[in-house]
C-alpha cells in the first residue's frame, strides 16, 4: 500500500538515478561506439559478480545507498531485461562521460546526456511503472528518491579542454550549467518527483588525471568545488583514512588520443591494498571512498557534508 513505511521506518520504495560515471552501473555496456566503459577487469575486482560497468573496484555510491535503505540494487536502464517487475524499485539511467550539456560526452564517442536520461525516464519507464504498480505517477513517485550526480565532466571534458577558445568565463559557464540543471530538476518535479538527492561535483583537482595533465594549476582545486560535499579535496583530510591520496590504484590508459590516463588498462594490474587508495583509476574513487561518501550522505549532520538534511531524514518524509 502506498504511503506506508516500507524499509526500516523509511518511506522509500526505490530510486531513480541520473548522472555520469560516478553513478553509472552498466548503461554504457550497451552503447555502441562508446569508449567510456568499465565492463572489464580490473573494474569490479571486488564486486560480487565481477565487472559490471561500474567505474570502481566494487560498489559505487548508489549501491551503498541502496544498502543503507535496505533496497535491492537498481537495474541499468539500457539493459534489455530492465522492464516490467524489474523496475518497481527504480532504474539507473546514468551514463559514463555524460554531463549536463548535451555535447559533453562527445569525446568518449557516445554517452547518454542528462537530457536523454530524463526522456528515457518519462517516455519509457513511467508508463511501464504505472502499468506494473496500478497507480498513477503522482501517487507513486513521492515514494522514490531521485538521485542526480553529474556536472564534473562538463568541466573536465568540456570547459577546461576548450578553455583557450571558450568565450565564457568560468563563472558564466557555471551559471549556465546551474540554469540548465535547474530546468532538468524542475521537469522531474513536474513529473511527480518530490525527494531529491543532488550529489556535489567531486573534487576535480584531486584526481590523478588532472594532476598529471595540468601540474601547477592549483586553481583547478577550488574553482568548481563549492557547496556541501562528503569528499574534501585535501591531502591532510583524506590522509586521515587513506595512505595514497594522489595516484591511481590500477594501470591507466588514455581515454582518447591525447588523453591523460582516465580508464584502467583492460585486464591490467590493480594495487593489492585497494582500501588504502582514494582513486581506483585516473578519475574515479575506490569502493572504500564510496563507502565514506554514502555513509556521510546517509547520516551526517554536518552542513559541510550534507545540506539541508541527510538521506536518512529525507527518506522518512
Commentary on this structure:
GO terms for molecular function: hydrolase activity, acting on ester bonds. It holds the Pfam family Lipase_GDSL. It is found in: Secreted. The model is unreliable at 218-226 (pLDDT under 50). The chain is of the alpha/beta class and 317 residues long. It is globular, with a radius of gyration of 19 Å. A 4-stranded parallel β-sheet has the order 2-1-3-4. The protein contains 10 helices and 8 strands.
Structural features:
Rossmann fold, signal, 317 residues, two-stranded parallel ribbon, alpha/beta, GDSL, 8 strands, hydrolase
Radius of gyration: 19 Å
Spatial order of the strands forming the largest sheet: 2-1-3-4
Number of strands: 8
Query: Low-confidence segments, ≥5 residues, pLDDT <50?
Result: 218-226
Q: CATH first level: which class? A: Alpha Beta
Helix content: 25-40%
Calculate the mean pLDDT score and round it. 89
| Cα-to-Cα separation, first versus last residue | 16 Å
- Could you state the order of secondary-structure elements as H and E? EHEHHEHHEHHHEEEEHH
- At CATH's second level, what is the architecture? 3-Layer(aba) Sandwich
Tally of helical segments: 10
Strand content: 5-15%
User: Which outline best applies?
Assistant: globular
User: What is the fold-level CATH name, i.e. the topology?
Assistant: Rossmann fold
- Structural class of the helices, strands and pairings? alpha/beta
Give the biggest sheet: 4 strands, parallel
Please give the domain count: 1
Amino acid at each position: 500500500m502506498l504511503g506506508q513505511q516500507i524499509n526500516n521506518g523509511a518511506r522509500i520504495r526505490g530510486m531513480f538515478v541520473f548522472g555520469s560515471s560516478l553513478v553509472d552501473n552498466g548503461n554504457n555496456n550497451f552503447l555502441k561506439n562508446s569508449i567510456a566503459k568499465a565492463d572489464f577487469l580490473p573494474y569490479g575486482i571486488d564486486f560480487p559478480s565481477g565487472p559490471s560497468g561500474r567505474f570502481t573496484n566494487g560498489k559505487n555510491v548508489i549501491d551503498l545507498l541502496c544498502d543503507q535503505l535496505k533496497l535491492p540494487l537498481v537495474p541499468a536502464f539500457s539493459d534489455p531485461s530492465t522492464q516490467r517487475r524489474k523496475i518497481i524499485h527504480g532504474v539507473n539511467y546514468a551514463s559514463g562521460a555524460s554531463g549536463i550539456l548535451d555535447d559533453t560526452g562527445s569525446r568518449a564517442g557516445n554517452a547518454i546526456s542528462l537530457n536523454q536520461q530524463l526522456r528515457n525516464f518519462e517516455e519509457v519507464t513511467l508508463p511501464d511503472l504505472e502499468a506494473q504498480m496500478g497507480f498513477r505517477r503522482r501517487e507513486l513517485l513521492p515514494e522514490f528518491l531521485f538521485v542526480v550526480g553529474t556536472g564534473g565532466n562538463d568541466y573536465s571534458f568540456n570547459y577546461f579542454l576548450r578553455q583557450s577558445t571558450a568565450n565564457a568565463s568560468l563563472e558564466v559557464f557555471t551559471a549556465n550549467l546551474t540554469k540548465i540543471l535547474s530546468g532538468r530538476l524542475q521537469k522531474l518535479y513536474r513529473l511527480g518527483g518530490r525527494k531529491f538527492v543532488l550529489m556535489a561535483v567531486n573534487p576535480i583537482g584531486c584526481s590523478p588525471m588532472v594532476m598529471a595533465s595540468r601540474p601547477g594549476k592549483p586553481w583547478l582545486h577550488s574553482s568548481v568545488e563549492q557547496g556541501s560535499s562528503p569528499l574534501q579535496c585535501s591531502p591532510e583530510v583524506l590522509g586521515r583514512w587513506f595512505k595514497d591520496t594522489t595516484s591511481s590504484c590500477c594501470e591507466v590508459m588514455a581515454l582518447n588520443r591525447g588523453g591523460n590516463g582516465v580508464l584502467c588498462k583492460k585486464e591490467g594490474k590493480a594495487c593489492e591494498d585497494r582500501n588504502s587508495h582514494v582513486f581506483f583509476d585516473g578519475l574515479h574513487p575506490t569502493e572504500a571512498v564510496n563507502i565514506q561518501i554514502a555513509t556521510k550522505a546517509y547520516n551526517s549532520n554536518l552542513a559541510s557534508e550534507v545540506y539541508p538534511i541527510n538521506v536518512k531524514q529525507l527518506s522518512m518524509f
